[in-house]
């Protein structure tokens, strides 16, 4: 009975190694990003850090990294366009 248990566990271990190896060779990587873009605030425009100045920097970053999934915080409707 003890031999059967050892053989069974060994067989399960070997099968798991083959399965893990198969998945690791065909795995798909995702590039995921999250960014706080800060809402479009009139006070920021007066201080020279308005959305018009931040927009090109953020879009360049998104284009450069080429995210598969991207999330953003503090987004207003006019900033989604």
SSE arrangement:
Blueprint: H1 2-25, E1 32-36, H2 42-46, H3 51-65, E2 69-73, H4 77-80
Task: Explain this structure.
With 81 residues, the protein is an alpha+beta fold. The chain has one domain (2-80). 59% of the residues lie in helices and 12% in strands. The chain contains four helices and two strands. The chain has a two-stranded parallel sheet with strand order 1-2. The chain is rod-shaped, with a radius of gyration of 25 Å. It starts with a helix and ends with a helix. The model has no long low-confidence stretch (mean pLDDT 82).
Judged by helices, strands and strand pairing, the structural class is alpha+beta
| Fraction in helix | 55-70%
What value does the average pLDDT take? 82
Beginning-to-end CA distance, first to last residue: 68 Å
Total of DSSP H or I helical runs spanning 4+ residues: 4
Largest sheet: 2 strands, parallel
Q: Widest sheet: strand order?
A: 1-2
Uncertain spans:
none
**SSE order:** HEHHEH
How many separate domains make up the residues? 1
- Shape descriptor reads rod-shaped
The percentage of residues in β strands lies in 5-15%
Task: Output the radius of gyration.
Answer: 25 Å
The number of E-state strands comes to 2
Short description:
By secondary structure, the protein is of the alpha+beta class. The chain has helices at 2-25, 42-46, 51-65, 77-80, and strands at residues 32-36, 69-73.
């Amino acid at each position: 009975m003890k031999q059967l248990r050892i053989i069974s566990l060994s067989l399960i271990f070997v099968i798991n190694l083959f399965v893990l190896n198969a998945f690791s060779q065909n795995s798909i990587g995702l590039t995921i990003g999250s960014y706080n873009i800060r809402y479009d605030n009139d006070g920021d425009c007066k201080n020279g850090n308005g959305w018009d100045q931040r927009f090109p920097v953020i879009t360049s970053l998104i284009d450069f990294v080429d995210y598969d999934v991207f999330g953003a915080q503090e987004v207003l409707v006019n900033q989604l366009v």
